Amino acid sequence: MESLRVVYRNPVIEGVLLLAVIIQIISGLSLFFKKRKSLTGFYDKLQLWTGMYMAFFLLIHVGAVLTGRFILKLDTNFYFGVAGLNTFPFNLFFIPYYGLAVLSFFGHVASIHFQKMKKNIFGLSPRKQAGIILWIGCIYLVITFYGLTNGFQGIEIPSAYHVLIGK
C-alpha cells in the first residue's frame, strides 16, 4: 500500500480514479432506473440489484475514506478499514456492509458472464458457470473475513483509530 500510494495518490491519478467512480455510480443508477421494471430472468435481476448495491457501497466507501483522510487526518490503511469490522456493535453494520459488497461484485460478474456466454465450457452450461462464480465469491468472502479478523479472533485497533469506534 505504501509503495503504491506514490501512484494512486498523485493528484491527477486520484482525480481520474474518483471521476471513474462517479461515472460508475451515475451510469449504474441510470441503468437501474431505466431497466428495473423490464427484467425477468434471475441473472438479469441479480445484475441490476448487485449494481445498485455496488453504487451504494462505492458512494459510502469513498466518502468514508476521504473523510478519514482529510477531516479526521487518519492514515486510511488496513486499520482504518477493519476498525468497525472488529468492534462490537459496529461489526453488526460492517459485516453485512462488506459482505454484501463482495457478494455483489461476484454476483455482478456472474450475471454478466451468464448473459455473454453462449456455449458450454468443460461441459458446464453458462448457468452452472455463473453459479460457480457465485460460489467462488462466497468462499472468497469467508477467507477475506477470516484474514481481516485475525482468524475471527479480532484485531487490536491502534489508539489513533479509536475515534472511528467511539473509544
Number of structurally distinct domains: 1
Rg calculated over all Cα atoms: 18 Å
Spell the H/E element sequence. HHHHHH
Shape: globular
By DSSP, the count of extended strands is 0
- In helices, the fraction of residues equals 55-70%
DSSP strand (E) fraction? under 5%
Which structural category do the helix and sheet elements fall into?
A: mainly alpha
* Spans where pLDDT lies below 50 across 5 or more residues: none
Q: Determine the number of helices (DSSP H or I, runs of at least 4 residues).
A: 6
Give the N-terminus to C-terminus distance in angstroms. 26 Å
Question: What's the pLDDT, averaged over the residues?
Answer: 93
Largest sheet: none
Keywords:
167 residues; 6 helices; membrane; transmembrane helix; transmembrane
Report what the structure shows.
The protein has one domain. It is built from 6 helices and no strands. The protein is globular and about 55 Å long. The chain is mostly helical. Keywords: Membrane, Transmembrane, Transmembrane helix.
Helices and strands, with pairings:
Blueprint: H1 2-8, H2 11-35, H3 42-71, H4 78-82, H5 91-116, H6 126-148
Helix pairs in contact: 2-3, 3-5, 5-6
In short:
Keywords: Membrane, Transmembrane, Transmembrane helix. The chain is mainly alpha-helical.
